[in-house]
Amino acid sequence: xxxxxxxxxxxxxxxxxxxxxxxxxxxxxxxxxxxxxxxxxxxxxxxxxxxxxxxxxxxxxxxxxxxxxxxxxxxxxxxxxxxxxxxxxxxxxxxxxxxxxxxxxxxxxxxxxxxxxxxxxxxxxxxxxxxxxxxxxxxxxxxxxxxxxxxxxxxxxxxxxxxxxxxxxxxxxxxxxxxxxxxxxxxxxxxxxxxxxxxxxxxxxxxxxxxxxxxxxxxxxxxxxxxxxxxxxxxxxxxxxxxxxxxxxxxxxxxxxxxxxxxxxxxxxxxxxxxxxxxxxxxxxxxxxxxxxxxxxxxxxxxxxxxxxxxxxxxxxxxxxxxxxxxxxxxxxxxxxxxxxxxxxxxxxxxxxxxxxxxxxxxxxxxxxxxxxxxxxxxxxx
Length: 382
Ligand code: HEC
What we know:
elongated, about 375 residues, 2 domains, 11 helices, 3-stranded antiparallel sheet, disordered N terminus, mainly alpha, binds heme C, 5 strands
């Protein structure tokens, strides 16, 4: 069986191949500046960066929108998609503009990169860089047709196309979300990016200092390299910090009882929600399987310390989908073996991903790493 998302591909330029399309004008190119200096021109800038909210990987805004909507490296306009996976997209029409390298801690072939000439051209990185550049050229040369399809609403295609776009929210350096391709602003970002020849971020490095985060890093020839970007504020690796920044805001809505205090004042000053809102009641099944609240429904002050006992060393509940030998919510010193971590990574073998709903991981790797750090330190009730 093909993954369901294959059925929803954007078959971009097929109609154009058959009938020959007139390119509507892509308009002016506003490149902007990689250093982020304000250059005064209004509208989107092709060099504006966004970050993948799961792994922090940077792309230019237009690059991210096209990558997310045209196959995301796995179907339709992706080189790795073959046969039925292309859903009729002709061979070679590849718009896969995924980075050729991330930092060496993620991909060891990205350590000690050499210029791509002579023997160096054969390195895995240089081969991936060449493929990226060729896909970028293909994307740029089809720019007018791509914009026609987007403007005509042929893309993104239908309700399922929505899901493709929603899989990974991209965040801007100011931590707001990148507009979607089906908004006027999203379309204009892609139009400008194509008008500028579809420049791509080719690889990343880890920023040596926080100040460097958004600056370009040292590049080889004909590539753009930028430092891995912001992930937002991270919790401390303590249960109370994790509780208030993650559990209370993203889990208690389902793992808590219906709460009459939904819109009223929680006397607890640590409550991060506006006007002291206390969430809960959204999923009776989730609440039956796991209660992440405390004994006083009107004052959340003790909720972190009291909910600790529902997770640590506690086997999965009969009310959930995971009850079975050895399935434990949090196993002190074993992050990867803990059901809670597996569910946050959407790699669990029972029940669903957490927070439930999107079918994929939605909490960033950086935040999950903090939770694992806490578990690996023995998951204390601190
Ligand atoms: C939209 C509702 C919803 C949200 C939000 C949600 N959960 Fe759940 N959760 C459920 C349901 C329903 C189950 C039981 C079915 C299953 O395991 O898939 C469950 C089960 C679990 C279990 C397994 C408990 C057991 O005993 O089987 C864990 C662990 C868990 N959730 C953790 C979390 C964490 C951590 C978050 C926040 C990051 C979260 N959940 C957010 C609905 C939700």
